[in-house]
Amino acid sequence: MERPTDLYKLLGSLTKMLQQELDRYLIKLEINSSNYYFLVKLKTYGQLTQEQLVSLTDLNASNVTRALRKLEQRGIVQRLDNPKDKRSNLWKLTERGTELACEINQILVKVEKNFMASLSTADRQAFVKLSQVLYQRTLVLHK
User: Fold this and answer.
1) 32 Cβ neighbours under 8 A, 6+ residues apart
2) Cα R_g (the chain), whole angstroms
3) Helices (runs of H) and strands (runs of E) counted in the chain
4) What is the model's pTM?
5) CA neighbor of 104 nearest in space, from 59, 41, 54, 39
6) pLDDT number for residue 141
7) Considering the chain, what percentage of its residues have pLDDT values greater than 70?
8) Phi, then psi, of 85 in degrees rounded to 5
């Protein structure tokens, strides 16, 4: 009989440790691992609708709404009228949000580099590639 590999524990523990490490850096910016992603996506794509942010982050729409409102109250993102669809809004980074997004990007590079430091270049590339394959496969299975 085949024995389980503790994959659930390994992935869960790695995710938790990585989030804690990321939060250690993000706390200085008063951002956390639950809401940094919105800044990164808005910096990458520019103005986005809330629906697009839900799709890009794989988060529940109500969680996205709550996070965007908090970021808006802090002057990090701005809500705009959507000229293509009056029923929705566009979201964009403010100047402060753009500065934070640049800092967050530097933090992400540093945390990722530290996380993968013990792996060879080939192992790092293989880890990323396999993670992407598993992620894409999981998306297909859950649709």
Assistant:
1) 23, 26
2) 18
3) 6, 3
4) 0.84
5) 39
6) 77
7) 99
8) -155, 105
Name the packing angle between helices 36-45 and 61-73 (round to 10°). Answer: 90
Burial (0-12, 13-18, 19+ Cβ within 10 Å), 98: middle
Q: Report which of 74, 73, 9, 63 is spatially closest to residue 37, judged by C-alpha positions.
A: 63
For 74-90, the pLDDT digits (tens) are 999 999 998 888 888 99
pLDDT tens for each residue of 125-142: 999 999 999 988 887 877
**Residue 113 clears pLDDT 80, i.e. is over it:** yes
What residues contact 133, with CB distance under 8 A and at least 6 apart? none
Cβ proximity of 48 and 56 under 8 Å? yes
Both structure tokens of 135: 């992620």
Mean pLDDT across the chain: 92
Name 91's Cβ contacts closer than 8 Å, sequence gap at least 6: 38, 42, 47, 48, 49, 50, 53, 68, 77, 78, 79, 80
The contacts of residue 44 (CB under 8 Å, 6+ apart) are none
66, 73 contact by CB (below 8 A): no
